[in-house]
């Protein structure tokens, strides 16, 4: 519309102040209605230059015009961002049912029909009524709309109410309580001019003037530099605050937006746009509007829009309920003619007639529809649209910024904090699955009180550390270049990077090698689906860092076709969904490629079938059923891609977040339990979600290291860590059980893939890992060796003879005392006599001493460490005499105080203050074999033996025993050093490995070969562990000991706390009898008084006994301290009962045959399940066809090797 003739530079007339005053004075008459001819148009105040519009509130499509009765004042051309948006404003007259009243600004209502304006009549402006100005000026903020500043005055045409039509695709959802409150944005309020209000949706109408070709004229400037509307805030209120302002006004005062008369809302009738109302529950059923046209245009403006202010997001969320807390159902209010019903969402692939083949396998069937995962498609009459469909947000090229709910969360990579909701100015997608009744199936959040608690740590007591090698094929393949992405299908594995190479896992031969070109590298790779199951893994799709997609043929080692489909955005992921392929780039563009009608496989020739826009900041994503679960930092969003770009795309209103866990780094699903989705986090936690209702089922802390990759193999969850280790968890028990844990790579594990096709193609289940060391390694996904060894141990009572041995253990930090030191006190002199005579003639006696030399003598310690050769003779002789004195003293005590039993010295071992002395009964000595001892130094970085351990192991019959005497790092704050000492001792390879495979299975546990401590069946650890009591002062501890309140102290014991809270604490695999005695450290020598020296060390249970056994083969009978005052520590002893076994070889052979038979039966069952999963959930065959394919393949195998299955 051309601006009227005027003397203003922007097309507006300049009038004297007196005329404006008269105009505002007439506005004080609220009850009058013009009776004469319509007044001439008056100059509207000049509009403030619009602020940049946040990308979440930009309109992708123009709206139809809102007709007026007068020609408005001049409007600057080329201002698409200043279009009038009436989102959220309602007519008070319509809602209250009463007649309309004059507007808030004194403007007359708009007329439904254009009326030629009078050419000469000019009415001066009037001052606004004081009462209305007072009511608004105190509470009103900013401009509700920049277009309201140039709105002309329209003549009154009666008191017809302004009807507000239903918003065409307002989502409906059932009120639910979120798990976590939305996170508030930490951004400060912008200091820019007030921004426009939230936009109307793309299907709502706009004014005619927006469709006019605009001229590039600058926006008008406020000459007076004065605010045109009283304002106290510099930010833009949203629709909900506008409603709150109007609610505070008198019922007879109505905004000028409410003046147009009602109409049926049809654009053909030139009626004004209808504003939606938001009635409260119950949900009203109605037919949805016709689908929107897909936007193919850019938003005007080349600048990056500012983020939505947190205060605006709060008010937009609060408008759903008056109190702003509940998100009730949002239903459109139908007025006028009903729009046509939205057609039903089409299937992801149109049904087609499959071509028959002469032989198996049949060609790939049409991919199942959206209900393959148990969710039906809603009828067209009840299907509800959501606001985040790519129809209104997906741009053609990548230069455009995102809009609405696709806005990037720029703070998603920061630390944990309150959850911040989506930066959408309109209601975000409904938290619902598409079901026939369109009722929400779940919420992305539950109540804070119902938030899943972190479960107990996994049980590591029976972890197997052996590597699960495959029986056939090569074990490892070196890629010989830096590769981080790979895919595997059957016997072929393909990696990409600067090269794309493929190998055969059967013999390790390289079958393809392609160079990606200078400056380009492969960033994603996947095996292309074949026309039938036997034609799988013949070609690969490669995504590059330049946004190019290539299809390569492995047999010819050539590129078949290529296409730049992602506009130079790096392709970061390629997914397979039945016989579709989805490609995602780092700009957030998702393309869906469906099979053509000739080859039944996706092709790059015709381009993608549909495209979508997802959130940027991708950290992990995967396909779950028909959905794409995409993680950005801690947030997980769920999308539903399909052939129809106009259909519902984003599933959840808000992302799924667990603030107690770190960033999402990996994820998987289990074929045995596809309804659960597992995500690995950077802080070593695993979160579990339900794919049915999106609820969080729990969070498990499985490690202290970053989880780089997860894979589901049958009933087990595989996790690859940043340390290069791989763990396998059995989730069928509570808490989870760590079945395996081994060092798979020297560098971090980059990716794990459980190959679903391997069982069907190779008759084995393989899991392939890629490490940062550029090594590909294949593992046995069925864990056959683990199952066989575990089953044999469970059957050992059928082929073994069991016997119980009595074991007595004493640990004592002697404080450099000698046997002669015991003579100075009568109670000390009689200690060993009473101790041995009350022991009950044990079969094995273990004496573990610490600090038999004075470690406090810094001079002597320095001499031993710094000058070992020069002073070795003298010091070693002195130390040897000390150890010899204790050895001889203990032997005499056994002879004197236990005359009925004959004991023999089995072994002694010293280490700079540590001393282990083992005696056994004479009749037991011939049954002992494989005796060995070792030492682990931990002092001064592992160079000195003042701290460390002595480890002695031997076998009694066919059971292996291991005894550890240790002295760990000291200090109240040295808990982490002690943890590291324990880990180093238990993980050290200190013994020669057992070479006989049968002996390894019979005598050692955990898949070990006897070279490590935890390989042995029966382990006992004693010593001065130096764990202290935390967060309590010395006086408090002493008082609690005097009062007998030991439980209060034990709750803060560092060892017990670490066992509860630290999943990587290695002593979690050990057990300890409950402590009922007072702390054994630290006393004044010769007294019963805790340390009264200058340091005044706090009492603690430093001296401990812990044990570990398989299936309860160790039973502790007592656990007590003894009163020997010659040292600052009190001795601690325990009596145990060890169960050892003796194997009958013939019975064992029979048990082994039975075990193998059960394994074959179990393997056959597992194989059928894995094959059905592959054919139905990956390939897309129905159950009948899949079963036929499995049967035919099995028959062909029997024909090739009949002797294997013959009688």
Folded structure, characterized:
- With 1207 residues, the chain is α+β, with helices and mostly antiparallel strands.
- The chain is built from 20 helices and 39 strands.
- The strands form nine sheets. The protein has a six-stranded mixed β-sheet. A five-stranded mixed β-sheet has the order 1-21-20-19-18, with no helix packed on it.
- Helix 7 packs across helix 18 (1145-1179).
- The longest helix is centred in the last third of the chain and has 35 residues, at 1145-1179.
Features:
globular, disordered C terminus, six-stranded mixed β-sheet, 1207 residues, 20 helices, alpha+beta
Q: What's the main sheet like?
A: 6 strands, mixed
Total number of strands: 39
Helix content: 10-25%
| Average pLDDT metric | 73
Structural class call reads alpha+beta
Strand percentage lies at 15-25%
Rg calc: 40 Å
Quaternary arrangement of the chains shown? single chain
Side-by-side strand order of the widest sheet: 31-32-30-29-39-38
- Low-pLDDT regions: 1-6, 30-113, 131-217, 223-360, 367-449, 869-876, 1203-1207
Number of helices: 20
Q: Span from first to last CA?
A: 94 Å
Q: Write down the overall geometry.
A: globular
GO molecular function: endonuclease activity; phosphatidylinositol-4,5-bisphosphate 5-phosphatase activity
Keywords: Endonuclease, Hydrolase, Nuclease
Pfam families: Exo_endo_phos2 (PF22669)
Biased composition (Low complexity): 255-272, 440-449
């Amino acid at each position: 519309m051309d601006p009227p003739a005027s003397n203003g530079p922007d097309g507006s007339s300049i009038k004297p102040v007196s005329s404006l005053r008269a105009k505002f004075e007439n506005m004080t008459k609220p009850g009058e209605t013009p009776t004469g001819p319509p007044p001439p148009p008056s100059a509207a105040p000049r509009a403030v230059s619009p602020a940049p519009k946040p990308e979440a509130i930009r309109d992708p499509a123009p709206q139809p015009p809102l007709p007026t009765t007068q020609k408005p004042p001049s409007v600057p051309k080329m201002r698409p961002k200043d279009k009038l948006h009436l989102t959220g404003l309602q007519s008070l007259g319509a809602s209250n049912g009463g007649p309309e009243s004059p507007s808030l600004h004194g403007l007359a209502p708009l007329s439904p029909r254009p009326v030629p304006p009078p050419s000469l009549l000019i009415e001066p402006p009037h001052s606004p009524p004081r009462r209305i100005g007072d009511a608004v000026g105190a509470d009103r903020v900013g401009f509700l709309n920049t277009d309201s500043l140039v709105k002309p005055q329209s003549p009154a045409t009666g008191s017809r109410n302004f009807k507000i039509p239903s918003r065409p695709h307002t989502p409906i959802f059932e009120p639910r309580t979120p798990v976590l409150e939305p996170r508030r944005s930490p951004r400060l309020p912008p200091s820019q001019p007030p921004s426009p209000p939230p936009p109307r949706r793309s299907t709502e109408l706009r004014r005619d003037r927006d469709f006019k070709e605009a001229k590039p004229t600058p926006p008008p400037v406020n000459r007076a530099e004065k605010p045109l509307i009283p304002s106290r805030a510099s930010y833009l209120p949203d629709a909900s605050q506008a409603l709150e302002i109007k609610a505070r006004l008198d019922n007879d005062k109505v905004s000028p937006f409410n003046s147009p008369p009602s109409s049926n809302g049809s654009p053909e009738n030139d009626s004004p746009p209808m504003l939606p109302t938001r009635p409260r529950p119950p949900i009203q059923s109605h037919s949805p509007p016709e689908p929107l046209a897909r936007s193919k245009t850019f938003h005007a403006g080349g600048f990056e829009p500012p983020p939505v202010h947190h205060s605006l997001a709060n008010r937009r969320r609060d408008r759903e309920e008056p109190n702003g807390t509940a998100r009730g159902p949002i239903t459109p209010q139908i007025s006028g003619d009903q729009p046509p019903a939205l057609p039903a969402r089409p299937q992801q692939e149109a049904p087609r007639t499959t071509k028959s083949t002469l032989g198996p396998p049949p060609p790939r069937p049409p991919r199942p529809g959206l209900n393959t995962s148990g969710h039906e498609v809603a009828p067209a009459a009840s299907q509800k649209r959501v606001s985040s469909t790519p129809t209104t947000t997906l741009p053609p090229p990548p230069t455009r910024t995102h809009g609405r709910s696709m806005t990037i969360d720029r703070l998603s990579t920061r630390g944990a904090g309150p959850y911040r909701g989506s930066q959408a100015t309109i209601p975000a997608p409904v938290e619902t699955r598409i079901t026939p009744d369109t009722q929400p199936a779940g919420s992305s959040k539950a109540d804070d009180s119902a938030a899943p608690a972190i479960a107990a740590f996994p049980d590591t007591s029976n972890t197997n550390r052996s590597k699960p090698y495959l029986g056939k094929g090569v074990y490892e393949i070196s890629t010989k270049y830096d590769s981080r992405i790979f895919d595997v299908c059957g016997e072929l594995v393909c990696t990409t990077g600067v090269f794309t190479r493929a190998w055969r896992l059967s013999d390790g031969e390289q079958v393809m090698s392609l160079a990606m070109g200078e400056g380009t590298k492969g960033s994603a790779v996947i095996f292309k689906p074949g026309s039938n199951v036997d034609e799988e893994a013949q070609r690969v799709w490669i995504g590059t860092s330049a946004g190019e997609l290539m299809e390569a043929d492995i047999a010819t080692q050539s590129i078949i076709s290529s296409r730049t489909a992602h506009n130079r955005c790096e392709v970061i992921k390629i997914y397979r969904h039945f016989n579709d392929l989805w490609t995602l780039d780092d700009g957030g563009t998702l393309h869906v490629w469906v099979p053509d009608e000739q080859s039944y496989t996706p092709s790059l020739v015709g381009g993608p079938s549909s495209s979508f826009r997802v959130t940027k900041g991708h950290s992990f994503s995967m396909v779950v059923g028909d959905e794409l679960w995409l993680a950005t930092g801690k947030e997980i969003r769920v999308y539903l891609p399909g052939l129809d770009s106009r259909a519902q795309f984003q599933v959840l209103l808000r992302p799924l977040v667990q603030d107690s866990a770190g960033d999402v780094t990996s994820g998987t699903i289990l074929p045995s339990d596809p309804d659960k989705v597992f995500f690995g986090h950077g802080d070593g936690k695993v979160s579990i979600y339900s794919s049915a209702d999106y609820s969080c089922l729990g969070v498990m802390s499985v490690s202290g290291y970053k989880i780089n990759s997860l894979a589901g193999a049958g009933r087990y969850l595989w996790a690859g860590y940043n340390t290069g280790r791989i763990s396998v968890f059995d989730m069928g028990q509570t808490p989870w059980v760590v079945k395996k844990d081994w060092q798979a790579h020297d560098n971090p594990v980059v990716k794990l893939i459980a190959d679903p096709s391997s069982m069907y193609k190779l008759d084995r289940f393989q899991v392939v890992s890629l490490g940062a060391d550029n090594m590909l390694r294949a593992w046995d996904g069925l864990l056959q060796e683990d199952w066989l060894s575990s089953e044999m141990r469970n059957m050992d009572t059928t082929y073994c003879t069991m016997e119980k041995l009595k074991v007595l253990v004493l640990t004592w930090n002697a404080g450099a005392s000698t046997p002669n030191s015991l003579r100075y006190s009568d109670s000390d002199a009689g200690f060993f006599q009473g101790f041995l005579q009350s022991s009950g003639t044990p079969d094995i006696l273990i004496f573990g001493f610490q600090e038999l030399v004075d470690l406090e003598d810094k001079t002597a310690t320095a001499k031993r460490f710094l000058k070992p050769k020069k002073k070795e003779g003298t010091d070693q002789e002195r130390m040897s005499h000390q150890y010899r004195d204790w050895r001889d003293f203990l032997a005499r005590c056994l002879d004197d105080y236990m005359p009925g039993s004959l004991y023999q010295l089995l072994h002694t071992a010293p280490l700079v203050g540590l001393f282990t002395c083992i005696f056994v009964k004479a009749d037991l000595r011939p049954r002992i074999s494989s005796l060995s001892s070792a030492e682990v130094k931990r002092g001064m970085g592992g160079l000195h033996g003042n701290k460390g351990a002595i480890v002695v192991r031997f076998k009694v019959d066919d059971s292996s025993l291991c005894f550890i005497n240790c002295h760990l790092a000291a200090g109240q704050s040295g808990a982490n050093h002690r943890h590291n000492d324990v880990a180093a001792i238990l993980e050290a390879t200190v013994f020669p490995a057992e070479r006989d495979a049968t002996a390894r299975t019979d005598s050692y546990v955990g898949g070990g070969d006897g070279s490590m401590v935890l390989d042995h069946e029966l382990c006992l650890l004693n010593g001065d562990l130096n764990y202290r009591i935390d967060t309590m002062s010395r006086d408090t501890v002493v008082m609690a000991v005097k009062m007998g309140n030991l439980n209060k102290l034990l709750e803060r014991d560092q060892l017990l706390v670490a066992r509860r809270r630290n999943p990587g604490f290695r002593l979690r695999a050990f057990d300890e009898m409950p402590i009922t005695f007072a702390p054994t450290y630290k006393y004044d020598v010769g007294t019963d008084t805790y340390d009264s020296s200058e340091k005044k060390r706090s009492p603690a249970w430093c001296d401990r006994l812990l044990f570990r056994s398989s299936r309860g083969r160790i039973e502790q009978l007592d656990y007590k301290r003894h009163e020997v005052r010659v040292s600052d520590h009190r001795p601690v002893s325990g009596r145990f009962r060890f169960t050892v076994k003796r194997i009958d070889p013939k019975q064992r052979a029979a048990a082994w045959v039975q075990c193998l038979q059960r394994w074959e039966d179990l393997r056959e069952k597992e194989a059928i399940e894995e094959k059905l999963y592959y054919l139905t959930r990956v390939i897309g065959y129905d159950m009948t066809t899949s079963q036929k394919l499995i049967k035919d393949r099995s028959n062909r195998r029997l024909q090739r090797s009949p002797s294997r299955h013959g009688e």
